[in-house]
Amino acid sequence: xxxxxxxxxxxxxxxxxxxxxxxxxxxxxxxxxxxxxxxxxxxxxxxxxxxxxxxxxxxxxxxxxxxxxxxxxxxxxxxxxxxxxxxxxxxxxxxxxxxxxxxxxxxxxxxxxxxxxxxxxxxxxxxxxxxxxxxxxxxxxxxxxxxxxxxxxxxxxxxxxxxxxxxxxxxxxxxxxxxxxxxxxxxxxxxxxxxxxxxxxxxxxxxxxxxxxxxxxxxxxxxxxxxxxxxxxxxxxxxxxxxxxxxxxxxxxxxxxxxxxxxxxxxxxxxxxxxxxxxxxxxxxxxxxxxxxxxxxxxxxxxxxxxxxxxxxxxxxxxxxxxxxxxxxxxxxxxxxxxxxxxxxxxxxxxxxxxxxxxxxxxxxxxxxxxxxxxxxxxxxxxxxxxxxxxxxxxxxxxxxxxxxxxxxxxxxxxx
Length: 416
What we know:
Blueprint: H1 3-21, H2 32-36, H3 41-52, E1 57-62, H4 68-89, E2 97-101, H5 105-114, H6 118-136, E3 143-147, E4 153-157, H7 158-165, H8 171-177, H9 179-194, E5 199-203, H10 213-229, E6 237-243, E7 257-260, H11 266-277, H12 285-294, H13 299-316, H14 324-330, H15 333-339, H16 341-345, H17 352-368, E8 371-372, H18 373-380, H19 384-396, E9 400-405, E10 408-413
Parallel strand pairs: 1-6, 1-7, 2-5, 5-6
Antiparallel strand pairs: 3-4, 8-10, 9-10
C-alpha cells in the first residue's frame, strides 16, 4: 500500500470511528439528519399527519436504542422544512414546532429561561410580560433593597427592574415577588408558550424497568399540560417518545394514538452506512450486513458493534477489508445475549442459558435463513424437548414462525 493510500485509509477509519462513537442522537449534531438518516415509513406517515392535524396526541414507542430521539429530531426537522416552504407561499402563516428533552417543570422551565432557541424565546417573552405587568402594579415609591458588592444596602426603584427585564435579567424582579408566585408565573408562561405551537415533541428519557415511579410522575405531569392545552384555541399536537418495555399500566397512555417505531431491517442499516460513507469500506458487504443483523435493527447497537469490530481488527492486526469471520470473532454470542436481554428477559426471566440459545438461533436464522428443527438441535446441542420449548416461546412472541414441509418443521424468522 502506498503512503498516500495508507493516509487515506487512516483518515477514513478515523472518520468512521468518530461517527460510530456517537451512539446517542443527542451527541451527533443536527446535520446528520440530512446526510445520514433514513426516515422509517411510520415516522414519515406521522409527519404527514402532523402537518395538517390539530389537537392530536401520539406516542412514538420503541425499545431502548431503536432511534426514538433520532426520530423526534427528524420529525421536528421535517415539519420545520415544510413550514418554511409554506410560509413563502402564505406570508401570514405562523406555525411553531417545539421539541425538547423532558424534565419536570421545576427543572425544565429554569433551563428554558437560560437557553436560546424557539421554545425559550417564547417562554421568555410571556414571562417578561407577566413580570412587568405585576411590577407596574406596585406603588411608585416602593423600593427594592439589594445588597451591593461594597457591603451596604442600596434602594432601587422598580423602573430599574423593568429596564433589566428588557435583557431578560429576572433576578431582581423575582426576588421581590417571592418563590411561590415566581413558580406559578413561570409555569403559566410555559403553558402560554406551548399554546402557540402547532406541534410539541416531548422526548422522554429511558426509565428503569424495575421502578415505574418516575415514569408515572412524568406521565401525570404531561397529562395535566395536555389537559390545559386542550382548552386553548390553537390546540397543538403533542407527540411523546416512550419505551416500549414500559408502555402499559397508565391511563394517559390509553388516550394516545400508538405508533410503533420498529427496529430497522438489516438492509436499511446497510443503506444508512452506504449513504454516509459511499460504500461499505473497510467492511465487506457481507460483514457489514452481518453486523446489521446482529444488532437486530437497533441503531445504537449497530454503531457499537462497528466500534467493537474496528477495535478487534486493530488489536489483531489483520488486513482489511473486515470479513464475516472477523465479525464473529469480535462479537461473541454472550455479548449479543446481554444486549438482547431487554426483550428476551420477559420471555425467559430466570433462564439465562435459554436466552443465550435464543440469540444463537436468531442469529443463525438471520444469516442462513429458514432451518429445519433437527439442524437447530444440532446447532444448539440441546435435547429435543428443550429446542421445542425454545421455538414455541419465540413463536408465541412472534420472533419466529414454524412451517411444515413433509414430516419436518422448518423454522424461519417472523417478519415484523
